C-alpha cells in the first residue's frame, strides 16, 4: 500500500524487473489530434515513439540501468476523453498488461491516477504539469517523483511572493483565485495561499472548478466569472493548472468581464501567445507571474536554445538518433521524457540490493543533488525532495513583442 515502500524487502525485485532488463512505460498524449479537434495552435511535439526509442538506445549504450537493459514501451493516451475512469484504465494497462517497473506520466490530471500506480507498486516519474505537494509525495512514498517540475507547496508560496514583488496586489484588498478542485490544490489554497495572502492584506475569493471533464470545467469557470464580476474583483490568479487560465480568459471575454491576470507555467503561457484568435488581446495586458519551464513560457528569441548543460545533453541524445527540434516549444514533451530517463538511470546505477522502488528511491536521495533538470531551472533533488525543479524566474507579458519574457536571474523555490 502507499506509504509502505520504506518497508519493502531489499532482496525482492520490483515488478517489471528481471535479471537482464527493466520495463518502463512512457505515456504520450496525441497533442496533434487535440489541436485538430480544438483548432488551438501549438508547436508539434514530433514523434514520441522515436524519442522514446532514442532514450532507450542511449541508456543501453551507456551501461543500462545498473547493468540491466531498459525495455521502453510507449502508450498513447487520448486526452479528449480524459476522466477518472480513463486514467484508471490506463493504470490497469501499465501495471497489469505491461507489468512495468515504472511509468513516465504525461497528461494525467485526475486525482485517482497516482494512488492507483502506487497501489500497484509502480514507480511514477511524473512529467505532467500537475500539482503534487509534500503530503502526496509522502503519502505515495517511494513511488512518486518528478524529474522536471517543482513541489507544489514551494511553488504556491513562491508564486504569491513573486506576485507581491511584481506589484500585482498593489492598491487592492481582494484577489480572485480560479482553482482546480482536487485534494492537493485544496490543501495548497486553504492551508497556505489564503494565510499568505491575508498576511499581505489581501482577501481571496476562490472559484472552485471541477476538472473532471471539459463540461464541468466550463460550467465552473463560467460561475466563477459571474461571481467575480458581481463582487467587483479585478485581479485574477490561477492555481491548479488543468487548462483553467486559457478557458477562463475566453469565457470572461465573452461576458465582458475585465481583469488583470497572473499566471505560471502550470497555465501554459505559450497558449496565450499562439492563439490570439481565441484569447482576447486585452487578456495579456499587465500579465505577470512565474515560469519554471522555458518550453511552455518564452520564445527562443528570449532565451537561447539550447541552453548549456542538461538541455543540450538531452538534445544531443536525440540528435544521435537523427531527431532534431526547430524550437524549444517543440521539445516540451521530449525534454521531460529525457529528464525521466536520466533520473531513472542516475538512481539505478547507485542501487544497493534488489532493484525496486524503495532501493531506487534511497539511491536518488543520496545522489540526487547532482541531477540537473533539462526542462527548467535549478537543482531541487537531494535528501527527501522528490521534485527536480529548484528555481523559477519572474514572468511578464511584453506588449512590444506580444510575448512573454523572463526578468532577472533564477530564484530558488521557497522551502
**Shape by Cα distribution:** globular
Question: What is the gyration radius calculated from CA atoms?
Answer: 21 Å
Portion of residues in beta strands equals 15-25%
Helix content: 25-40%
> What is the N-to-C order of secondary-structure elements (H for helix, E for strand)?
EHHEHEHEHEHEHEHEHEHEHHHHEE
For the secondary structure, the number of strands is: 12
- Number of distinct helices: 14
Query: What structural class do the secondary elements suggest?
Result: alpha/beta
Major beta sheet, strand line-up: 7-6-8-9-10-11-12
Provide mean pLDDT, rounded.
Answer: 93
Largest sheet: 7 strands, mixed
Low-confidence stretches: 1-5
Description:
This protein has 415 residues and is an alpha/beta fold. α6 (152-165) packs parallel to α7. The strands form two sheets. It has a seven-stranded mixed beta sheet with strand order 7-6-8-9-10-11-12. Strands 2-1-3-4-5 form a five-stranded parallel beta sheet, sandwiched between helices. It has helices at 31-38, 48-61, 84-97, 113-119, 134-139, 152-165, 183-199, 214-230, 244-254, 269-274, 294-297, 310-319, 334-348, 357-367; strands at residues 21-29, 69-77, 102-105, 123-126, 144-145, 174-180, 203-209, 235-239, 260-264, 288-291, 391-398, 403-412. It starts with 20 loop residues before the first strand and ends with a strand. Mean pLDDT is 93; it is low at 1-5.
Amino acid at each position: 500500500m502507499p506509504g509502505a515502500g520504506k518497508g519493502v524487502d531489499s532482496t525482492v525485485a520490483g515488478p517489471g524487473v528481471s535479471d537482464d532488463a527493466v520495463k518502463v512505460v512512457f505515456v504520450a498524449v496525441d497533442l496533434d489530434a487535440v489541436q485538430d479537434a480544438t483548432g488551438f495552435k501549438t508547436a508539434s511535439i514530433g514523434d514520441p515513439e522515436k524519442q522514446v526509442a532514442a532514450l532507450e538506445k542511449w541508456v543501453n549504450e551507456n551501461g543500462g540501468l545498473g547493468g540491466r537493459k531498459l525495455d521502453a514501451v510507449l502508450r498513447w493516451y487520448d486526452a479528449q476523453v480524459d476522466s477518472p475512469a480513463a486514467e484508471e484504465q490506463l493504470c490497469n494497462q501499465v501495471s497489469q498488461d505491461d507489468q512495468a517497473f515504472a511509468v513516465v506520466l504525461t497528461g494525467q490530471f485526475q486525482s485517482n491516477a497516482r494512488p492507483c500506480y502506487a497501489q500497484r507498486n509502480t514507480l511514477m516519474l511524473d512529467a505532467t504539469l500537475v500539482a503534487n505537494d509534500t503530503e502526496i509525495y509522502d503519502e505515495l512514498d517511494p513511488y512518486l517523483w518528478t524529474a522536471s517540475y517543482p513541489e507544489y507547496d514551494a511553488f504556491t508560496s513562491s508564486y504569491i511572493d513573486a506576485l507581491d514583488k511584481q506589484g500585482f496586489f498593489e492598491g487592492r484588498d481582494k484577489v480572485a483565485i480560479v482553482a482546480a478542485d482536487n485534494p492537493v490544490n485544496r490543501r495548497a489554497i486553504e492551508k497556505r495561499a489564503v494565510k499568505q495572502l491575508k498576511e499581505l492584506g489581501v482577501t481571496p475569493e476562490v472559484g472552485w472548478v471541477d476538472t473532471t471533464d471539459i463540461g464541468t470545467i466550463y460550467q465552473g469557470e463560467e460561475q466563477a466569472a459571474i461571481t467575480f464580476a458581481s463582487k467587483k474583483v479585478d485581479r485574477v490568479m490561477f492555481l491548479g493548472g488543468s487548462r483553467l487560465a486559457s478557458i477562463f480568459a475566453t469565457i470572461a471575454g465573452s461576458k465582458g468581464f475585465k481583469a488583470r491576470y497572473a499566471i505560471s507555467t502550470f497555465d501554459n503561457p505559450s497558449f496565450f501567445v499562439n492563439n490570439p484568435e481565441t484569447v482576447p488581446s486585452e487578456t495579456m495586458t499587465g500579465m505577470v507571474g512565474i515560469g519554471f519551464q522555458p518550453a511552455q513560457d518564452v520564445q527562443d528569441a528570449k532565451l537561447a536554445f539550447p541552453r548549456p548543460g542538461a538541455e543540450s545533453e538531452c538534445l544531443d541524445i536525440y540528435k544521435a538518433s537523427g531527431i532534431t527540434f526547430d524550437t524549444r516549444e517543440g521539445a516540451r514533451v521530449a525534454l521531460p521524457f529525457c529528464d525521466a530517463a536520466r533520473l531513472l538511470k542516475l538512481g539505478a546505477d547507485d542501487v544497493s540490493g534488489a532493484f525496486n522502488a524503495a532501493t531506487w528511491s534511497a539511491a536518488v536521495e543520496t545522489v540526487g543533488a547532482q541531477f540537473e533538470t533539462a526542462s527548467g531551472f535549478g537543482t531541487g533533488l537531494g535528501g527527501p525532495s522528490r521534485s527536480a525543479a529548484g528555481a523559477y524566474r519572474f514572468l511578464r507579458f511584453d506588449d512590444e513583442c506580444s510575448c512573454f519574457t523572463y526578468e532577472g536571474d533564477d530564484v530558488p523555490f521557497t522551502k
